[in-house]
Amino acid sequence: MGTMFTSESVSEGHPDKICDQISDAVLDAHLVNDPDAHVACETLVTTNFCLLAGEVKSHSDVNYEKVARNTIRSIGYDIPDLGFHFGENTYKIKIHSQSPDIDHGVVDNKGAGDQGLMFGFACRETEVLMPYPIQLAHRLLEQLRESRRTGELPWARPDAKSQVTVEYEGYTPVAIDEILLSVHHAPDVETGEMEDDIQEKVIAPVLEKCRPTLKWNGMFLFNPSGRFAIGGPHGDTGLTGRKIIVDTYGGSGRHGGGAFSGKDATKVDRSAAYMARHIAKNVVKAGVADRCEIQLAYAIGRPEPVSVMVETFGTGKVSDIDSVEKAIRDLFPLRPYRIIEYLGLRKPIFLNTSSFGHFGREHGTDGAFSWEKTDRAEELASRLL
Questions:
Q1: What is the pLDDT of residue 100?
Q2: pLDDT tens-digit profile of 237-270?
Q3: Residue 135 main-chain phi, psi, to 5 deg
Q4: Dist. CA 278–CA 260, nearest whole Å
């Protein structure tokens, strides 16, 4: 028997993900008319209540309550008697101006908006160079969302969680050991009916697309607590930034600790993590390594990273790791403002990132995610191999 590794994901209607989406919707609303807006927005939701707080520097006016209402409605909280409804919630707004001290370091020095360390990761387990467990966990919930919205699962509500355990031999996934899905549901539906629907409408179509050669022993847990009739913010308070491992690599790669959602790209928590993923993905695509992790670290107000680290876990094809680091520094911009320009991070694209992972999806609804491109792979290969 090989080793087992498990990753989880949560749906767009999970309380924490509701908050991520509202915070990113606020960011996008500012960026529509002010590409240079600085935004740090946090959201809290609970039973029939939504609080927005944070700091903003922007010349665009945004109706924050309207943004929150529209986001909550689009997620699917327009159903009566769930304890959370876009039109019935109480909304409280506590957003004020950004600190001029932070603004000086970011604007005048063109430096990082905060100190911190960020990681990017890529591997050959899937076509999009993501670890298999988190990729499958995300795709299951995406399919659940589509089946719910098309009416194929009339009993399903927006809140859900997935968990996937995969067996490995070394770094190679060889089998799906177990799939777990917990789905918020209408109170008057039988568990057996829901489980059959999930097998047919969610699991089967996803496994057909997502590495169908990987065997699955059929081990499936559905709503293991028995019932999930009370869900969403009525069942559990949500906060922005509490699903950082879901947002990244499902635990396969390290995380610096900073959340993404609600932050404009001058915050290196977000922009440098996107760049680190872009670099790692190009390294793997180039054939320089089969598995790669990049760490970038910054000091607040300073433009250059204080460190760049490359880890290939023994899969590297280049013996001199210093030459790999030098090639990365030469080919990829690492100053925060250069990263923003290179990846095009002044556009209102961020709401699309805040569900189903920031990585491993080639496109959002408004186009390609620039950090997922592998357009520097050929140049890396020619230089290093």
A1: 72
A2: 999 999 999 999 999 999 998 999 999 999 999 9
A3: -65, -45
A4: 16
- Rounded distance between C-alpha atoms, residue 382 and residue 142, angstroms: 37
Structure tokens at 220: 């499936």
Percent of the chain with pLDDT over 90: 86
DSSP for 347-374, written as a single string: SS-GGGGSSS-SSS-SEETTEE-GGG--
Which among 244, 209, 11 is positioned nearest to 126, based on CA atoms? 209
Q: Which residues of 203-231 are buried (b: 16+ CB within 10 A; e: fewer)?
A: beebbeebeeebebeeeeebbeeeebeeb
Is 70 exceeded by the pLDDT of residue 364?
no
Q: How many CB atoms lie within 10 A of CB 359?
A: 28
What CA–CA distance (Å, rounded) separates 112 from 283? Answer: 25
Instruction: Give all strands of the β-sheet with 49-57 in edge-to-edge order.
Output: 90-97, 49-57, 38-46, 238-239
Distance CA 166, CA 5 (A): 5
Q: What does the alpha-carbon distance between residue 291 and residue 188 come to, in Å, rounded to a whole number? A: 47
CA distance 20 to 12: 9
Q: Is the pLDDT of residue 273 over 80?
A: yes
The confidence band for 363, taking pLDDT boundaries of 50, 70 and 90, is low
d(CA 35, CA 339): 15
Residue 372 in contact with residue 359, Cβ under 8 Å?
yes
Q: For 56-78, how does the pLDDT look when each residue is reduced to its tens digit (9 = 90+)?
A: 999 999 999 999 999 999 999 99
